[in-house]
What does this fold into?
Amino acid sequence: MIQVTETSEKNNPVIYVIDPDRQLTARLMKLFERTGYKAACYANAEDFLQAEQQPARYGCIVSELKLPGMDGLELLTKIHDSGCRLPLIILTGDPDVSHAVNALQKKVFDYLVKPVIERELFKRIKAALRRSKEAQGLARHG
It folds into this structure.
């Protein structure tokens, strides 16, 4: 696991990246570091679930669809079953219409195809963080 931009403030979001592609995760970690976001990377869903038994309430997950072991959609089901409602953005290098439809039915926040343009991914991450923050606010106020 790699962590950057540690912060003690509870209102700062955490971006979880789950992808076995080390080049991509290194690039994303640099992007998050430059923009001041706290982030953590994992090579597979099982490592994420083991390390993040209580993920942040405010943040998002960016996950490759096809992971070793549990795939990104199985991860979404598992985290939703545990009560975690962080928005999940699926990345895939192997797009397939049936996978996209299945992802939307399982309520993924977004579905992007690799190679992904950093600016576009960051725009989608910011939208996911807004949704997460709104959900956190709703939970606090009623």
